[in-house]
Design brief:
The chain is α/β, with parallel strands linked by helices and about 140 residues long. It has seven helices and five strands. Strand 4, helix 7 and strand 5 form a beta-alpha-beta unit.
Length: about 140
């Protein structure tokens, strides 16, 4: 099984104990599946930078260690030109930021892949595109 996880899911790995974080158990469960090889993780090129940017803001003292832990997780990067074209189409159609639509585009352009997000706002806009799931349902 191939999954694309956006930063909203990955950040829960590092903020699981933070007040107000919804569904950290589901996010950590996915991480366990990636670690065991049960799930293949496929990400757009900006994944690490986006997670690191939020960690720097929310956990500056721990951000470097967390980013290094993130880099230890096995994942592949997808940067085919078709992914960027699809992300741009999604961004325009749903009036949403390209950095967010890139995750969905990776899933849509990869046979059998599924995009998992904790971003309910984007999910509501783009669920009709398919191959997208809310973290809460995992």
């Amino acid at each position: 099984m191939t999954v694309v996880l956006d930063a909203s899911v990955a950040l829960k790995w590092f903020l699981a104990d933070a007040a107000g974080e919804d569904h950290p158990a589901q996010a950590l469960g996915l991480l366990g599946q990636v670690a065991s090889g049960e799930v293949r993780l496929l990400q757009p090129p900006h994944f690490v930078a986006e997670v690191a940017a939020v960690l720097a803001r929310l956990k500056p003292q721990q951000a470097l260690d967390d980013m290094l832990d993130l880099l230890d997780i096995e994942f592949e990067t997808a940067d085919d030109p078709g992914i960027y074209a699809r992300a741009l189409e999604l961004a325009i159609r749903h009036q949403h930021h390209v950095f967010d639509t890139l995750y969905h585009a990776v899933a849509l352009e990869t046979p059998g892949a599924e995009f998992i997000t904790a971003d309910g706002r984007y999910f509501k806009k783009a669920r009709s595109e398919g191959r997208i799931r809310l973290l809460a349902t995992v």
